[in-house]
Specification:
The chain is built from five helices and four strands. α2 packs antiparallel against α3. The two termini are about 20 Å apart. It has one domain. It is an alpha+beta fold. About 65% of the residues lie in helices and about 5% in strands.
Length: about 190
């Protein structure tokens, strides 16, 4: 998984799961079914991340993956690793999983906020009471923004792990593409 694209991809894809039910008109979809769809999508994604290979990119066409066992594959070929290199590979993989999980949590919260905002707006339109809708929605959005900032806090550790892995496993060096600008730009 390309860590530079991970968060935006998750944030864009997860709310789409809520739109996957084409059997019901939009008016009949309740927040519980939308929440369930989003939860199912995130559960599936978490399982795939935990059990599948994680792709890393060098910005070119050379495919590399980290297996759940800590193997490093380049173009499908296993790169020999000693015990300490494998431990670094697994540590890096766990950091990628943590970052992906945090991104999914933010995506779920964002989908929930979208449903809540739409629900609040509809209630306000039908009841004529639109007082405070924007304030309530903005308060929830501020909570999500705070969680996103926590996600940005994971990036320095990720970069340190990536650099340590690149120093210990020369074959990984082309895939250690994260730099300080990734950290500085997070949250913008």
């Amino acid at each position: 998984m390309n860590t530079r694209l991970l968060l935006p991809a998750l944030l864009l894809c997860l709310p789409l799961a809520a739109c996957g039910n084409r059997d019901k008109p939009a008016a009949e979809l309740d927040t519980a079914s939308i929440g369930q769809k989003v939860q199912e999508a995130t559960d599936k994604a978490r399982k795939e991340i935990a059990q599948g290979n994680i792709s890393v990119s060098d910005g070119n066409s050379i495919k590399a993956e980290i297996t759940p066992q800590g193997d490093f594959l380049v173009n499908g070929e296993k790169i020999p690793l000693d015990a300490s290199q494998r431990a670094l590979m697994l540590d890096y993989r766990k950091q990628v999983e943590a970052l992906a999980g945090a991104g999914m949590d933010i995506g779920v919260a964002g989908a929930g906020l979208g449903v809540k905002a739409a629900s609040e707006a509809l209630k306000g339109i039908f009841s004529g009471d639109t007082q405070g809708i924007e304030e309530r929605v903005n308060a929830e959005a501020a909570k999500i923004e705070a969680e996103a900032k926590k996600l940005c806090g994971l990036l320095p550790g990720m970069m340190a792990r990536q650099q340590a892995l690149a120093a210990a496993v020369p074959a990984f060096k082309p895939y250690a593409t994260m730099d300080q600008s990734d950290i500085n730009d997070c949250g913008k």
